Amino acid sequence: MKTDDRPFGEGKQKWVSTEWLENNMDKDWVIMDTQPDVHDYFMAHIPGAVYFAQKLMRAPKNGLPAKMIPPKQASYLFGRIGIDNDTPVLIYTAKGGFREWGDGLEQCFMAYNLMRYNHSEVYLLDGGLDKWMDEGRETSQEFPEVEEKEFTPDVQKDMFLTYDQFLDVKDHDDTCLLDARPLSMYTGESGPWIKNGHIPGAVNLPWSSLMQSNPKLLKPAEKIKKMAEVVGATKDKLIICSCGTGREATNEYTIFKHLLGYPKVKVYEGSFTEWTSYPDNQVVKGKEPR
Question: Is 243 a catalytic residue?
Fold first, then answer.
């Protein structure tokens, strides 16, 4: 997106271009590197960036994997890398030069988590470190000095749905349930779950379809809006973002809420993994929602 002169987006989270970031490196903020492996960070990172492994934000609960960690743990982790509730945070990721296994979701997942625990100002680097490096901008292998701070968590329960809340609204006429996974997982042709397919009523809008070939780089907002409307995701509806474990859904949450400005957007954090953990819940195979 051509927005080199200023951040773009709405609310607590915005995007910035690589050019804008380079021209604003002296801003008083924390730059968070969320590359998939710490060795990627060792090889190259934006000067001054502190490393954070996004996988730290989830742990099993009652046997169900990939559940969000309690506020106390989030407070400790954020504070340890110099984040309080108000200091702006710029987040980026990359494919990673060490093992090249990054999918691009790390930065939107961390943006969602910061806002979920009540951070007030978050930025994503449109195009991530890959675009930054492709353009020949400066990188570093030095580690920054970080002063620990106090982060006071306050879980923003209006951002997500619990299982019971999801059951209450998923079939309403004014609800659009999105499944952000690849088409083959949506149809049930592939997938690791005990039952493959999708939640009845869900429509498929793969998160990667909203991005360019660089999965950290957004497609134009108007193009994304048209794609959303094709599957029935219009501004007058409650948009529920779901996927396999809730991670891909955060990409669509950030886009619908903070790029397109939809007023009613929530993540079903348990997503398909939680849904299929209940033996009586049905799944649908094929391209049709039901």
Answer: yes
Question: What are the boundaries of each domain within the chain?
Answer: 13-134, 157-275
Q: Terminal CA-to-CA distance of the chain, rounded, Å?
A: 35
Mean pLDDT, all residues of the chain? 97
List, for residues 210-231, the tens digit of each pLDDT value.
Answer: 999 999 999 999 999 999 999 9
Q: Which residue has the tokens 């690849």?
A: 182
Name the pTM for this structure.
0.97
Task: Name residues whose C-beta falls within 8 Å of residue 81's C-beta, 6 or more positions apart in sequence.
Answer: 30, 32, 50, 52, 146, 148
pLDDT digits (tens, 9 = 90+) for 169-197: 999 999 999 999 999 999 999 999 999 99
**What class does CATH assign to 157-275?**
alpha beta
Give the Cα separation of 239 and 274 in Å (integer): 19
In whole angstroms, what is the distance from residue 265 CA to residue 176 CA?
10
Contact 219, 156 (CB under 8 A): no
Catalytic residue among 108, 176, 241, 243: 243
Instruction: With CA atoms as reference, report the closest residue to 41 among 132, 32, 257, 157.
Output: 32
